Amino acid sequence: MSKPSVALVVGTRPEAIKIAPLAHRLRGRDDIELQLCITGQHQEMLEQVLELFELPVAARLPVPQGSSLTRLTSEMMRELDGYFHETSPALVVVHGDTCTCFVASLAAFHLQLPVAHVEAGLRSGNRHSPWPEENYRRMADTLAELHLAPTPAARDTLLAEGLPASRIRVTGNTVVDALLWMKQRIDDHRWRPDHTSPLACLQPERRHVLITSHRRESHGNGLQSICRAVARLASRHTDVDFVFPVHLNPTVQQAVYGELKHYRNVILTAPLDYRHLVWLMMHAELILTDSGGIQEEAVTLGKPLLILRDTTERPEALANEGTRLVGTNPDAIYECAHNVLESRLELAPTDPSSSPYGDGQAARRIESFIVEWLAGRTRRPAS
Ligand SMILES: CC(=O)N[C@@H]1[C@@H](OP(=O)(O)OP(=O)(O)OC[C@H]2O[C@@H](n3ccc(=O)[nH]c3=O)[C@H](O)[C@@H]2O)O[C@H](CO)[C@@H](O)[C@@H]1O
Fold first, then answer.
1. What sequence ranges are listed for the domain UDP-N-acetylglucosamine 2-epimerase (predicted)?
2. pLDDT in tens, 282-335
3. What is the pLDDT of residues 52-101, one digit of tens each?
C-alpha cells in the first residue's frame, strides 16, 4: 500500500521558518510522504529559509511576484487546484494567517481534501488589524478539519466559536522549536557575523536595538511615525546602534530609507537571513517590532519588547512586565524606548524557560496528532 502524502503549503518567510521543524520531523518518517509545496507568494526572503533549514522542496508554483492580493489569490488558487488534483494529498497542512494559508485551505476544501491549520485560533478581535491577516486566519480556521492551537487561549477561542474539542490540540508554537534550533547552532559554533555580513559594523562594546516594521495597516502614517521615533531615539542615544532590516515591500523601503538613511547610528539592511536575525535578537538591548513571529521570539529569548501595533493576537506576553503594546504614536514609542535605554524603565524580561508561546516540542506534538488522525482515517469505513 502506498504511503499517505502530507502536503505542507508555504509561501512566505515566516511560514517557512515556522513549518521547518514539522518538515524536519515528517521527513524522518518512513510511513508518510512529505510534499513541501512553495506557492511563491514571497520569493527571495523565502529562499534563504529553505536553504538554511535544508528543506526538501517538492513543487514550486509559478505565481507572479508583486501582484495585488486579488490577483495573487486567483493565480495561487488556479495553481494549487492543479497541484492538488495531480498529487491528491491525504492531508494539506497550512500555517498561520497569510494569503497562501487561506488560499491553500480554500483550494483543498473545494476538492474535499482535509486541512490541518497550524497556529489556529489566534484573534486580535479587529478585522482591520492585522489586515488582511486577521480574516485570513479566521477563514482558514473555518475551512480546516484539524486545528493546531499554539496556546490554551487559542484553543479556548476555537471552542467558543463552536469547533469540536476532538479536532483541536494545544501544541505550543513551532516558532519556539525553530528559534531554539537556530540558537543552539549559534551557541555550539560560537557563530557571529563575519566581515562580509551587513552586521559587521556592530561593535561588541556598543548596545544595539532591533527594529522591524512591515504590517500593511501601518503603511503610510504608522510607518512614518515609527521612523520618526527611531530618528529621535538615534539622535538622543548616539552610543546605541539602531538596526533595521528593511522588508522588501517597496512601500516599506521608500518610507524607511526616506526617513532614516542619514543617521550614522541607524543601520539599514536588506532582510537578514534567520541566523543573523536570531543572533541580533540574542544580543539586542531592546526589540521594537510589529512582526508576529518576532514578538514570540523576543519573549522566548527574554528580551524587552515594544509592540508597534494597537492590537495583538498574541496577548500572552502582555501579562508580564517585559512587553508593552505601544502602537505607532511616535511620542509613546520614543518615551518608552528612551526610558528603557536610560535604565529609568526596567522591562523585566520573561524567564526564557517559561515562554508562554511554547517549549520547543510543538512540532513533535503536531506530528503525533497528524499520525493519529491518519491512522484513524484508514480505520474508518469508506462512505
Ligand atoms: C499578523 C502577523 O503577525 N502575522 C504573522 C505573519 O508573519 P510575521 O509578521 O511574523 O512576518 P515577518 O516579520 O516577515 O517574519 C517573521 C520571521 O522572520 C524572521 N526574520 C525577520 C526579519 C529578517 O530580516 N529576517 C528574519 O529571518 C523573524 O525572526 C521571524 O521568525 O505570518 C506568519 C505565518 O503564517 C504568522 O505566524 C504571523 O501571525
1. 25-370
2. 999 999 999 999 999 999 999 999 999 999 999 999 987 889 999 999 999 999
3. 999 999 999 998 877 899 999 999 999 999 999 999 999 999 999 999 99
Question: Which CATH number is 37's domain given?
Answer: 3.40.50.2000
Taking the centre of ligand 1 as the mean of its atom positions, its distance from the CA of residue 120, in whole angstroms, is: 16
Active site residue 119: yes
For the CA of 179, the nearest atom of ligand 1: 31
Compute, in angstroms, the gap from residue 271 CA to the centroid of ligand 1: 11
User: Same domain, yes or no, for 142 and 263?
Assistant: no
Options 78, 192, 207, 216, the catalytic residue: 216
Residue with cell 476538492: 111
Cα angle 317, 17, 107; round to 5 = 105
Indicate whether 281 belongs to any domain.
yes
- Total domains in the fold of the chain: 2
> In terms of Cα–Cα distance, which of 68, 69, 63 is closest to 10?
63
Rounded CA Rg of the chain: 21
Active site residue 71: no
Going from the Cα of 107 to the center of ligand 1, the distance in angstroms, rounded, reads 24
